[in-house]
Amino acid sequence: MKIQSPQQTSMRDTALEEFILESESMRSILKVVHQVAPFDVNILITGESGTGKEILARIIHLLSPRAPHPFVPINCGILSGLLFEDKLFGHEKGAYTGAVDRKKGCFEIAHNGTLFLDEVSELPYDNQVDFLRVLEDFRFVRIGGSDAIQVDVRLISASNKNLKALISEGEFREDLFYRLQVVPIYLPPLRQRREAIPKMLDHFMERLVIKYRKPKPAIAPEVLDIFLRYDWPGNVRELKNLVERMFIVNERELIRPDDLPSDFLWHFADPPNELSLSEVRRSAETRAIRDMLYRTRGDKDSAARILQISPRTLRHKIQTYGIRVGRDGQPLE
Ligand SMILES: Nc1ncnc2c1ncn2[C@@H]1O[C@H](COP(=O)(O)OP(=O)(O)O)[C@@H](O)[C@H]1O
Ligand SMILES: [Mg+2]
Questions:
Q1: CA distance 156 to 309
Q2: Does position 37 have pLDDT exceeding 60, yes or no?
Q3: Domain 194-268 belongs in CATH node 1.10.8.60
Q4: CA–CA separation, 313 vs 89, rounded Å?
């Protein structure tokens, strides 16, 4: 393996600077990352979408002796059948209609580097066995080729699904799982490390100042308060995108809650008035009694008869509901 050049060292330092920790859970994760990165163990990163799985995989690569070599991400969700093999193993010229040139697959491109298998839960079941076979000795043949190619890659996989559950449902191979997950790393959702939000907000804005050459606005405490209360189902990605939207349209020196996009503020709209059953009954009975007294021109005995209650019950309801009607049953309010 090559020694890291000053350029690689600076790439690594930048990646680490870009990665905001600010919470105990994240600091202990980074500690594990530093421990395992230099060794060629396979790592499986799990966590909800947007929690930083890919950025963490890049950091692991940059902290490893493989840093001078490629980091090759591959989304397993979009591949099946021949397309999958083509993407991973490449093809020889003329291997199939449309294969006009020899093309390297991801395994070859990632030689000496790291292959990042994103959304690994989506690997089609039928392809999982072929895949596992290649992981045994990292030897394969390009489509339409005859010579076996040997590569040296480190695997980092990521999943936002629970692979153990998929195994029990028969959708993911257990042997493949244990091959991929030598070291598991779980990234908690942003709502479980809210203490990082202020720092992230500030960090993303600093980057946007450079990107869009606009001055950095101040953030009202109420805005920060909203951010700290929100659950962020899209995690860091959602926060980053919201800050960018907010930053681009903003023309003020101070961003207040009113300046947040309205679709975001909807999450905080007051819930509709929720009525208890007794309140529902009270309002419906009030309306029915008022209408009936109007129809009977204030004749309570007739109203009670039509409503099929006793005159006494009617008087009681009129009193407790505070129903006021005028002469001839005219509604008063
Ligand atoms: N801890 C963090 N500090 C700074 N940026 C982060 C952090 N975690 C995630 N991001 C950013 O959030 C976005 C989503 O992260 P990504 O790694 O693609 O998530 P995932 O792969 O889990 O869906 C990226 O733009 C990434 O740079
Ligand atoms: Mg991702």
A1: 74
A2: yes
A3: yes
A4: 84
Out of 21, 236, 240, mutate this one to test ligand 1's pocket (max ligand atoms within 8 Å of CB): namely 236
**221-229 contacts at long range (C-beta below 8 A, 24 or more positions apart):** 222/256, 222/257, 223/255, 223/256, 223/257, 223/259, 223/260, 224/197, 224/198, 226/257, 226/260, 226/268, 227/197, 227/201, 228/194, 228/197, 228/198, 229/268
In 8-92, at which residue ranges do the beta strands (DSSP E only) sit? 43-46, 71-75, 90-91
> With contact defined as beta carbons under 8 Å apart, do 73 and 114 qualify?
no
Quote the tokens at residue 248: 């681009």
Q: Give the architecture (CATH level 2) of 277-329.
A: Orthogonal Bundle (1.10)
For the cut 90, the answer to whether the pLDDT of residue 304 exceeds it is: yes
Farthest CA pair distance, the chain: 103
What angle (nearest 5°) sits at the alpha carbon of residue 288, between those of residues 283 and 294?
A: 125
**Most informative mutation of 27, 53, 55, 194 for ligand 1 (most atoms within 8 A of CB):** 55
Q: Distance from the CA of 203 to the center of ligand 1, in angstroms?
A: 13
Instruction: For the chain, give every domain's residue range.
Output: 6-188, 194-268, 277-329
Report the pLDDT value the prediction gives residue 3, as an integer from 0 to 100: 61
Closest C-alpha to 79, from 27, 152, 131? 131
8 Å CB contact between 304 and 268: no
Strands (E), 27-82: 43-46, 71-75
pTM, to two decimals: 0.79
Give CATH for domain 6-188. 3.40.50.300
Across the range 253-275, mean pLDDT stands at 81
For residue 320 the two structure tokens come to: 């407790």
